[in-house]
Amino acid sequence: MTRLRTVIFWRIVIVAAVSFLLSIAFTYYYYNHILIGQMMQEDKAKLSQTVRQLDYMSDDISKFTFTLIIAEQLQEFYKTYDQLDTFDQFKALQSTFKFVDGYKGLRKEVTSYALVLPDGRAFWNAAGNDDYFSERLKESWYLNFVLSGTEYGFTEPHLMFADQKPTSETTIISYVVTVRDIEKPGRTIGKFIVNLDYSHFQSLLDFSPFAHLAWLSDSGNSLYTKPSDKQLAHLVHDLEDAANNEGAFRVNNGYLLVDRFETSGWRLATFISQSSLFDRAKIVLYLLGFFTLVSTTLILVLMIPAILRITRPIMRLYNAMNAVSSGNLQTSVQISTGDEMEKLGNGFNRMTSQLRTHIEESIQHEKDKRELQMELLLSQLNPHFIYNTLNAVIYMAQKQGNEDIVRMVAAFIRVLQDAVRTGGDDSLVPLRDEVALLKDYIEIQSYRYADMFKVEWALEEESLHCLVPRIMIQPFFENAIFHGICPKDEPGTIRITANESDSLLLLTIEDDGIGIEPERLEEIWETHEKKSSPGLRHIGLNNTKRRLEHLFGSHASIQIDSEVGQGTRVSIRLPKLNQNNL
């Protein structure tokens, strides 16, 4: 233990001194190279998310507009309007307005729209031939768009009435697209203008997490600033030569983040000051410094390395012992510390190994004991003598032409052969074999209770290959005869069904007998075994239930549903097994 204490002491001294020095250097490095970078990446991701949302909105509006301009109704209006007389022009205009209104109702951000002919005449859906919108087209928002030579895109925000019932002008942003003849794409036949509620965009930007935000058009005009931060927009203009004005830029007192829209030339910019970065990071820095101080103190006071060296093997032994106490005797523990803990671990492994051996020997002893008892019983019964005697009875019955006796005794021999079968791995048999044995039992009972019952079978072919416990159905069939059919003094029907799903086999034994009162169901489970008939081996209902629990655990169940005067239904659910599953 002296060597262990010496190693622990020197490790404590070295770790305490080095960790304190490194923590100071790491804190400085972490803030300048890692923490700021992480915060910038988070802000870039938030900015990109806002850009994607705006980009999605603009792309959605673009698709909406292009869907309309290629529609036959609008194409026909632009190409034929000047060729119509006044009445037909009015009729065509109203028809086109009605067509577009059908689409406009699906877009809550669309306040109005206008059809503009090549000569500049404009038809605003809010006022028809009124000159109000034509006068708006002389303003800079539209003229700048036309001068840019752009085929389609968004204009600058501008003021105008939103609809035909104006109270005051509101801020609108318009989407303008040049309309071309779809039959002659080189021919321009007008423009289509969709006026959008600016607040639809503004609300998204107002709720962004940035204190400073600027939305710029492709021409550099400011579409939105927060909070009216014109200085931020000018700062973006000053960086025209930096990476196509997209990315992160170091500026005085902070960083500038700029992201560009995919579907347009728009840009979204935000300014993040050094002070705001420090405010966000200071809690981390304070915690880092605090934990550095605390951890150094704990290393010196509590001797963490020594504790870990001792407690880790102890925890392994503790977990292994818990596993053994829960019944997992395959547990072992690996401890390679080279000290007393390793000896304890090796002793634990020897103990569990000896315990497994003892339990396996005990199980084998009990199995041998049961087989010996069964062999002793069978030796007293001398089954070969019984088989020979019954075969002689069959021969005599055949000689006398009594086929009923032949069938009954042959069925009895087969049932008897199965009843005295022991050993081997035959606790589970195919349902086909179990049904064959049950039919022999039914053959015997049909002579004893002539014309008292009939049996209906509904067995799926696939289910006959599934494995079931031996002599599982017979106790329930016997119960249906003795407790269901016979007491009602008239013929009855017993129906046996079997079907399977992906993981379950469902067996039902149903009779139309007198039924069972609810308070007697539990009594049947408890007392049925005591009422076994002499002769054949009898397996009671309670024993059958225990066999299922032993073989399948919670994956198998027996349910009895009965109604007095109507009959009883026994449902058995088993895991779906076949020879390949074993």
Structure overview:
With 582 residues, this protein is of the alpha+beta class. The protein folds into three domains: 61-272, Beta-Lactamase (2-Layer Sandwich); 309-379; 423-581, Heat Shock Protein 90. Helices cover 53% and strands 19% of the residues. It contains 16 helices and 18 strands. The protein has helices at 2-69, 72-80, 86-104, 132-136, 140-147, 198-206, 230-237, 274-302, 304-325, 340-381, 383-400, 403-419, 431-448, 474-485, 518-527, 541-552, and strands at 110-116, 122-124, 152-154, 158-160, 170-180, 188-197, 213-216, 222-226, 247-251, 254-260, 267-273, 428-430, 453-459, 467-469, 492-500, 504-511, 557-563, 567-575. Strands 1, 2, 3, 4, 5 and 6 form a six-stranded antiparallel beta sheet that branches. The chain has a five-stranded antiparallel beta sheet with strand order 8-7-11-10-9, with helices on both faces. It has a five-stranded mixed beta sheet with strand order 13-15-16-18-17, with helices on one face. Its main location: membrane. It comes from Paenibacillus catalpae. It catalyses: ATP + protein L-histidine = ADP + protein N-phospho-L-histidine. InterPro entries: Bact_2-comp_sensor_kinase, HAMP_dom, HATPase_C_sf, HATPase_dom, His_kinase_dom, Sig_transdc_His_kin-like_C, Sig_transdc_His_kin_internal.
